[in-house]
Amino acid sequence: MGTINWGIIGCGSVTERKSGPAFNKVADSSLVAVMRRDAKKAADYARRHDVGQWYNDADALMDNESINAIYIATPPSSHTAYAIKALNKGFNVYVEKPVTRNADEARQIAEAVKQHPNQKLCVAHYRRGLPMFLKVKQLLENKLIGDVRTVQIRMWKTSRPDLVANAETNWRVLPEFSGGGYFHDLAPHQLDLMLFYFGEPEKAHGFSLNQSGLTPADDHVCGEILFKNKVVVNGSWCFNVAENQAIDSCEIIGTKGKITFPFFGNFISWKTDEEEQTLTFIHPEHIQQPFIEKMVAYFKDEGPNPCSIDEAVVLMDILDAFTKKL
């Protein structure tokens, strides 16, 4: 395959800076067309980002013969249908996270991928491509802190998290669209990195509840993962705390020390018996660009899949296990 010519289904806020412009900045990649149900907004996006064609109908975009890859950036409720339709039409597919609302829907996509061996699909767990999180992986593989024993994740935010883009309709807290609440929007970034670092999980369990009642979605989630390599991950996500108690923290504790970093920040700190150090990183302007580079290489048969649907199914199984009711 030569140039990967992209069509975006759902050119909303996530595509404005994080991803959309990167498709024209990666070698052998071009953004050809965009789609949004609101025609005026689709046309405005195309004008501002210098995209040649726009649509307000996904089927019309997928009928464009100059496109050979589809990026699905709609709310999760429509990911399954769009992904399967795109595969059926012969496209390679890039799906935003969370890949679906639950593991059953993710398995439907996985089955469709198996039925289309000539098509490829990648899930947007883009932190796998960022130098900061690759550095953490390197430190772990080099045994900087010895054998990992436990990981402590804390994501506590107010009822209007600063990490979440403002939208006219806050679909993120409407379970029928998002699968849950802010946990489903933010935790996939964190839990996917745990899979990236520690491999295959043995079991996971947890619970969730709606403490504040401010939205239809649960706002407090707790969970534990036991990995097959005996690493234990404990996580706490609460979206109803005071602003002065907000925290974004991951602590990886080993037999020789500890690595600490925020999932939505730009530094890594570690402390061992021999040293204590902090590294600061500058993330790329378009934060998905390094990952998109890896994905384009995969679509061109020049590299591995940076995140497969099978890996995303495992992640969705964990989200489902964590969001069981008390």
Please give a structural write-up.
By secondary structure, the chain is of the alpha/beta class. The chain folds into two domains: 4-125 and 287-308, Rossmann fold, CATH 3.40.50.720; 131-283, Dihydrodipicolinate Reductase, domain 2, CATH 3.30.360.10. It has helices at residues 13-16, 39-48, 58-62, 79-88, 103-115, 131-141, 175-178, 182-198, 289-299, 309-322; strands at residues 4-9, 29-35, 53-55, 69-72, 92-95, 121-123, 148-156, 201-209, 220-227, 232-238, 247-254, 257-261, 267-272, 276-280. The chain is globular and about 60 Å long.
- Beta strand count: 14
The first-level CATH class name of the largest domain: Alpha Beta
Distance between the termini: 50 Å
What is the percentage of strand-forming residues?
25-35%
Number of domains: 2
Q: Level of helix content? A: 25-40%
Order of helices and strands: EHEHEHEHEHEHEHHEEEEEEEHH
Instruction: Name the CATH architecture of the largest domain.
Output: 2-Layer Sandwich
Total number of helices = 10
In short:
The protein is of the alpha/beta class.
From the structure above, extract its key features.
326 residues, alpha/beta, Rossmann fold, Dihydrodipicolinate Reductase, domain 2, 2 domains, six-stranded parallel sheet, 10 helices, 14 strands, 30% helix, globular
Question: What is the topological layout?
Answer:
Elements: E1 4-9, H1 13-16, E2 29-35, H2 39-48, E3 53-55, H3 58-62, E4 69-72, H4 79-88, E5 92-95, H5 103-115, E6 121-123, H6 131-141, E7 148-156, H7 175-178, H8 182-198, E8 201-209, E9 220-227, E10 232-238, E11 247-254, E12 257-261, E13 267-272, E14 276-280, H9 289-299, H10 309-322
Parallel strand pairs: 1-2, 1-4, 2-3, 4-5, 5-6, 7-10
Antiparallel strand pairs: 7-11, 8-9, 9-10, 11-12, 12-13, 13-14
Helix pairs in contact: 4-5, 5-10, 8-10
